[in-house]
Amino acid sequence: MNKNINFEQLATELDELKRQTLAQVGASDAAYIRKVIVWQRSLEWGGRVLLMLGFLHPVWWIIGVLSLASAKILDNMEIGHNVLHGQYDWMNDPHINSRQFDWDIACDGKSWQRIHNYEHHTYTNVIGKDRDFGYGLLRLSNDFSWRLKNLWQFITYIYLSVLFQWGVSYHELAAERVFMGKKKQGRASNVDANELKRRFFSKGGKQLVKDYVVFPLLAGPLFLWVLVGNLIANLLRNLWTSTIIFCGHFTSDVHTFSQAECENETQGQWYYRQALGSSNIKGGKLFHILTGHLSFQIEHHLFPDLPSSRYQQVAPQVQAILSRHGIAYHTGPFLRQYSQVVKRIVRYSFP
Amino acid sequence: MNVLSRLNNITAKTLFHTDSIGSYFEPIMQRIKPAWRTHWFRAKVLGHELLGADVLQLDLSPEKAWPQAIAGQHVLLTVEINGRLMTRPFSISSAPEQSCSQYPKKHVIRLTIKTHVEGAFTAKLLANIATGGYVNLSAPQGEFILSESVLTQPSTPLWFVAAGSGITPFMAMLNQLALLPHQPQHPIQLVYFAKAGEHLYVDELMALQQQLSQFQVQLLIRKNGHNLTDALSTCNVQSQVLICGPSQFKDDVDQQLDVMKHPKAQRQAEFFQAPTFAQTAAGEQHVHLSQRGQTSQLVLAAKDNLLSGLEQQGISANFGCRIGVCHQCQCVKKSGVVRNLRTGELSQPGEQLIQLCISQAVTPLELEL
C-alpha cells in the first residue's frame, strides 16, 4: 500500500460524500427504478410478440431479438445487479428488494449474492480471495504462475463470453469444488454442496424450459423462429454483460493486491484498493443505463449500496477527491478500455 | 395452497422470476392504477381534516375487494413517504355501514391519527398524501370488537373506557350501535379522559347521546381532578368493559377494576405503547418469529446480533457474509425497533427489511424469516 496517502482523510471525505448522497435518496430514485422496470417489461413483451411476426417480414423478427436482448440486459444489469446489491431495499417495496428479487439469467440470485456481493466486493482484486479476478480460468497478471493452458486462454475467454450466464451460474459451484477438484483449505462454505447443485439445476433448468420450450411452443408453427430468437437474445446479452464486466476490472492499469497487503486494512485503505482495482467507461446516459451503471465501476465499488441512480451524480466528486489524494482514476471511452482488456488477456497468455 | 395459486406460483417462477404473476406486472399496473400493489388493498384519499393541533382525520374510500371491517378493528395503513413504503396500524373510527354526508355515494372509512412532530410517519403523512391520491390498506384486523354474545345480551352494561386517541375504536362501535335497526337496550357508558380542550368528536358524541337513549358520556380531565375511581364507580360485575389508550392507562383501569372485583374475563383492551427501550432484567429481548407458516416465541440475549441469537436458539436462518454485505440474511421485521450495528442507527418501529447479522433487538420484535 502507498504510504504517502492520508488514508484517514480519504476515508473521512468519501464517507461524508456517501452520507450526503444517501441523505438525498428518495422519491426520484424509487420512481427511476420503477420506470426502468416498466421499460424492461415493455421491451421483453414487445420483443416476444415481434419474434412471432417474423413471418410477415424478417425485420420484425430482428427488432424482436434486439428488443428481447435489451430487456434481458436491463433485467440483469440495471435492475438485477443493483437490486440484488440491496441498493433499493430502503424503498421497503415487497418485490423490489434483495430478498425477493430474482433475475432472467441462469444464475440463482442467492448464489450470486454470496460470491459477488461478499467475496468480490469485499476482497476486490485480492489475489487468492477474489475469484472474479480471472474467474479461475484466465491468467491476467504475473501474480499467477504461467501454465500451458494459458496459451489458448483467448479462446477460453471467447467461450466464457458466449456462455457467460452459465459461467456466472457455475461460479460458486466451481469455487466450492462441488463437482470436481480438491476442496480448498480454509474455505468456509455456508451452503451444502447438494443444495448448491439443486439450485444450479433448478434455476438453470427453468431458464432453459422458458426460453427453449415454453415460449417456442406458445408460438406454434413459429416454434423455430422463437427458439432461435431467444437463443440469439441470450447470446447478445451474454456478450454484452461479459464485455462490460471485463472492462470494469481487467483494463491495463487496474491493480492487484496481495492478501498480506490487505491484513488489518483500514476503511481508507479499503477505499484506495476499490478505486485502483476498478475502471470506468465513458459514455452517454443510455449507455450507462445499459451497463447497469457498471460504467461507474469505481463509484460502485466505493459505495456498493448506493442506488445506481446516483452514480453519475457522485462521479465528479469522487474523481476530485481521488485526485486530491493523488490516486489514479481509471476511465476512458469504451473502445479504448476494451482493447486494453483484450491486450491484457493476450499478454498474460504468455509467460 | 389451492391449485390456482400453485399454478400462478409455478408460472410466475418459471416465466417471470417473481412469486406471483401480479408482482411481475405491478410496476406496469401502477402506471394505470397508482399505488396498485399485490399485497395490499388500494384506497382513495377523499379528504382530510385537522381535528386539533396534532390529530388528523383521513377519509378513505377503499376498493371494492376490501373486506368490510367490524367496528373496533384496525388496519395497517401504507403510504409512500419520499419513495419509501411505510406502514403503521390505525383504528378505524367509523362504523361499517356509516354513510358520510360529504361523500354520499361512496363507501368511506375514517381513520383518526394522532400526529407526532418527530414521528417518521405521522409527521410526514400530510405532506405525502393528496386528495384524490391513493394509499394502501391491509384487510381489517383485530379482536377488539363487540362480540355477538355481548350484543345479544341486552342486560349486559357496556363500558367504553378511553384515553386520548383511544377514543377511535369506540367511535366506530357507538356509530354501529346507533345504526342498529332497533334501539340497543344495553346501558352504555363512555368514560373518556383527555387533556383540557383535546377531547375529540365531542359534537358527534353529543349527537349520539341524543340518538341512543341508554348512552351516557363522561368527558374527563385528570388535571381537573377527575379520576378513575369516581368514573368507574357505577360499573358492576356484569359489565363488559372495553379499554383503549396508552398501556399505562390500561394498567390503571385494570387495577381499579381489580379492586372493584370486576372479572378479568369481561374485559377487552387495546393499547398502544411508546417504544420502550427497556430490556428484561437479564438483558434479553422477546422475539415473535414466524417461519414457513409456523410461529414461535423466543427470548434472545439483546447484546447479540439477531442472526447469532437465533442460531443459539437452534433456528437456522439463511446467511452469508455475516458482516452486512451480502444481504443473504435479509428478513422482514413486522414490528419493533432494531439497531443497525454498522451505523448505530435505530430503525423505524414499522414493517421493513432488516439484515439479521447486523441488527440488534432494541424492543420486542416480530420477525418473519
From TrEMBL, chain A:
The lineage of its organism: Bacteria, Pseudomonadati, Pseudomonadota, Gammaproteobacteria, Alteromonadales. Residues 60-331 form the Fatty acid desaturase domain. This is Fatty acid desaturase. PANTHER family: ACYL-COA DELTA-9-DESATURASE, DESB, FATTY ACID DESATURASE 2. It comes from Shewanella litoralis. CDD domains: Delta6-FADS-like. The chain crosses the membrane at residues 49-69, 151-168, 212-236. The keyword Transmembrane applies. InterPro entries: FA_desaturase_dom, Fatty_acid_desaturase.
TrEMBL record, chain B:
Pfam families: FAD_binding_6, Fer2, NAD_binding_1. It comes from the Bacteria. Keywords: Ubiquinone. Coiled coil: none annotated. The keyword Protein biosynthesis does not apply. Residues 38-147 form the FAD-binding FR-type domain. Its cofactor is [2Fe-2S] cluster. This is Oxidoreductase. It comes from Shewanella litoralis.
